[in-house]
Amino acid sequence: MNLIIGTRNSKLAQWQTAFAAHALKKKFPHISTQIKPILTKGDKILDVPLTKIGGKGLFTEELEAEILSGRIDLAVHSLKDVPAILPPGLVLGAVMKRAEPGDALISPRYGTLDKLPAGARIGTSSLRRTAQLLHYRPDLTICSLRGNVDTRLHKLDEGNYDAIVLAISGLQRLGKETRITQKLPMSLCLPAVGQGALAIETRAGDTAVLSLIAALNDAPTVAAVTAERAFLSHIGGNCQIPVGVYGCINDAVITLKAVIASPDGKIAYRCSETAPQQEAVALGHFLAEKLLAEGGKSILQQLHVLTENKEE
Ligand SMILES: NCc1[nH]cc(CCC(=O)O)c1CC(=O)O
């Protein structure tokens, strides 16, 4: 059997695709894999902040069209780039064992968040990171920063920022872990839904392919990210709202932690709940409901007002 795996063009996507292909071949030495690079909208529009384009599916749409048409069999995604609801006919056939889920600070000059001088320039275009950083340090100056991981590191090295924030997992995969000067604690910055996990997307009815990739599934990771994704779909969120969430598994029990913050970081509501691994979806919905009731709802209402005004 030959599997054609589509990949975005970025180095991170290529690494992740090669990693999944390698894992498949290790389990099934008789299959062959072929990797096909595909340009996505998210890779083309690099100069506009993602928050202004409407992030949903930006990195996945083109790959999904190729899977549906049968030109490729699989796509390997960073789960955090995969929208809550997939197009009809497609499924996530596997979620691989999660890497480190958190975010890292990279500040060659100052090292840690606490050592940054007042007003320091932080590069990030993520509302989630912005809101949580400002909640901890309201004096920081948040500056837009887009591009793939290498581009962002390069812009830091050009002296445009005092620090930048990136996912630990992406840096590790690209061999850039040594650039990390502080791993941000979960108490300070909760990751994006699914951060650090790789998902493999394929056709819903393709049992031959599905039964192969099922071998790459990691049950604890699936439980954790199922709770996180249920949380986000209950909130009704995408990457345009400052929400962080992290599910961790211990002895088949999920602890789900979440935050909703105002974009300026002035208000942040945090909540945590636990439930048995089998109740991942209910846990996600329950925590979302709790967070909305505790004030999250008013933040979301204000955000919707803001978006409407912008469109006028
Ligand atoms: N936004 C792009 C993106 N998508 C996934 C990762 C990291 C890898 C992962 O989450 O598995 C990154 C880079 C980053 O946020 O620093």
From TrEMBL:
All copies of domain Porphobilinogen deaminase C-terminal, residue ranges: 224-292
PROSITE patterns: PORPHOBILINOGEN_DEAM
GO biological process: protoporphyrinogen IX biosynthetic process
All copies of domain Porphobilinogen deaminase N-terminal, residue ranges: 3-209
Residues found modified as S-(dipyrrolylmethanemethyl)cysteine: C239
Domain of life of the organism encoding this protein: Bacteria
Gene name linked to the record: hemC
UniProt protein name: Porphobilinogen deaminase
Organism, as annotated: Megasphaera paucivorans
